[in-house]
Amino acid sequence: MTVLIDKFEVDAEQIRPEVSLAELELDSLAVVELYVTLQEHWGSPLEEDESAGELPLRDFAAAVASQVSPDRGAADPETAR
Fold first, then answer.
1. 3-40 burial, b if ≥16 CB within 10 A, otherwise e?
2. What is the pTM of this model?
3. What is the pLDDT of residues 30-80, one digit of tens each?
4. In whole angstroms, what is the distance from residue 59 CA to residue 17 CA?
5. Could you tell me if 70 and 40 are in contact, meaning their C-beta atoms sit under 8 angstroms apart?
6. DSSP for 57-80, written as a single string
C-alpha cells in the first residue's frame, strides 16, 4: 500500500500480506488515520474495525475493498494514496 509508505513512512520491505498494521508499528490512532485517508481517497465511508490493527494486511485490504463502492474505481486498495 503506497499510503503506508508515503503517509506513515513504513519501509516498503516490511509490507507483506501476512504482516499486521501493529507489526508495522501503527498504533490505534494511526489505524484511524489510515481509515480516514482511505475514505477521503475513495469518497466512500468505511466502517472501522477495532481489530484492524491486528489483521494481516491481506485481510485488512480485503475488508476495506469489500466496503468500497465498485463504481468509485477502487478495485485495488493496494494503490490507495
1. bbeeebebeeeeeeeeebbbebebeeebbeebbebbbe
2. 0.76
3. 999 999 999 998 888 888 887 889 999 999 999 888 888 665 444 454 544
4. 8
5. no
6. HHHHHHHHHHHS-GGGT-S-GGG-
